[in-house]
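re: ur question from yesterday

yeah so i grabbed the chain u mentioned. its 344 aa long if i counted rite. heres the sequnce exactly as i have it in my notes:
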Amino acid sequence: MLKRHPLSITLDLKYKDGSVLHLYFYYLMSLNIVTVKTKVTTATEMSVAISAGDLLAPASLLSCLYPGDHGKKTPNPANQYQFDKVGILTFSDYIVDLGHPYVWVQKLGGLHFPKDQPQKSMLADNSLSASHMETTIKLLRVRLQSRLALQKQFASLEHSIVPISSECQHLFPVKIISRLIKWCAISYDDYVVLPYTKHVREADMAHETDLYFSALIERGTAKLHVAIVLNPGYSTIPPIFSICLHWKGEKSSRNDDNLKAMEGEVNVCFKELLGPKPGHQLLTNQIQRLCMCLDVYLETETHDSSVEGPKEFPREKMFLRLLRGPNRIKPFKYNHPQGFFTHR
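ran it thru and got these structure tokens back, copy pasting raw so excuse formatting
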């Protein structure tokens, strides 16, 4: 039942930097579906970051190339009846050997399956294949370019370096004291148990097909814990940040309006941080903005006069106004080239 046709198709997408995305297409005759396997070769050997392990993995590289198309289930409704006859519980158990049956792969093969309408036989439609080819090839090119850019960035982040290109330097002040201390990949299960990610989960903005990461930003005794959801469609779809500050207690966007505003600076105002097209520097610019916002948060705190000695976080930056409104929101917006901070 799971037998492949003896002929297969190999499609190589070559990039200007010498990288190649190899796509291997197979037709499963009894199931009447097409599957794809992938492999990436790069012109030069890249330093592989531990947190970048899933970026080029076959199981995630092409996941959700089109929204919701994770390639874990067969798109042919008739296959379930075939599976029941021979005792196959789920097609996902065989994906490693057979490849992923993405919906876009079926369309490239000229196959279209109406939902919940099993059909015994179906002829390939050349016009369907042609109509999807150009868009799909563009998406494939963008996907690999994005993943290769992330792989380079992760290598820097794991060494506590936030790479900022010359085109994006103007987004930040010259001096940022808060520093990235830790960057690592986490699982979906690790993410969902973090209490400060609850609002993201409840908004249905975190899925098992996404990639998840954890970061730690520090300045003095203040520790900012960061959880990041990275959609497979990055950077077309921006990452989502959730933060929790450990300083004079534990605070998050649930109980501190300024931490909620900091999340807004990276999640809502992300377009300011895209940098040059196609926006591959968004993630690192968001991390750097969080470092900047933590500086602002700490430097605008009122000093406890009952505590002797110098202030732990002296005011290093220029602020036109420290607090605004009943929620006492801090001035997180950086104004270039004037070099001062204001409220939005």
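noticed a couple things. The mean pLDDT is 91. also The radius of gyration is 24 Å.
anyway ttyl
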